[in-house]
Amino acid sequence: MKISLCAAVAVMAAITPARATQPQFINTADLLSAYDQGDASSRQLILLGLAQTEGGMELANIELQTRGNSPLYCRPPQLMLTGEQVLDMIRRYSAAHSDIRDSSYAVAILRAAEDAFPCTGK
């Protein structure tokens, strides 16, 4: 597992342009390109990262709700998203909202999840 994590960090670092103000910034277009041009191993690592990023956002949702705040989005609790599903959400969202391609892939995940899983009464 430690080797896989190191490999995932290496893949993300390889596709990350140097930015002084945002050292870990990977835009959506670069992420999608890296996935499309990557080999099977690179693709699996990217999918793992996408699933983990969305999972972290879901944990933030739980914490927000615990504190009495509104969640970021309202994914059904029984639905666990796979990396493939998160990738598909990003692709669909970026096709409809081309400006997101220059934003961080994490922001794209958030916006796509807000679009796919809106909270009623929010």
Give a verbal description of the structure.
The model is unreliable at 4-10 and 15-23 (pLDDT under 50). This protein is 62% helix and 0% strand. Helix 1 crosses helix 3, helix 2 runs antiparallel to helix 3 and helix 4 packs across helix 5. By secondary structure, the protein is mainly alpha-helical. The termini are far apart. It has helices at 2-14, 28-37, 40-66, 83-96, 105-116. The protein is globular, with a radius of gyration of 15 Å. The chain has one domain (2-116). The protein is built from five helices and no strands.
Averaged pLDDT: 84
Anisotropy-based shape = globular
Question: Percentage of helical residues?
Answer: 55-70%
Major sheet characteristics: none
Radius of gyration based on Cα positions? 15 Å
Number of separate structural domains = 1
Number of strands: 0
Q: How many angstroms separate the termini?
A: 39 Å
- Give, in order, the helices and strands: HHHHH
Number of helices: 5
Classify the secondary structure makeup into a structural class.
mainly alpha
- Sheet-strand content, in percent, reads under 5%
Assembly form of the protein: single chain
The stretches of 5 or more residues where confidence is low (pLDDT under 50) are 4-10, 15-23
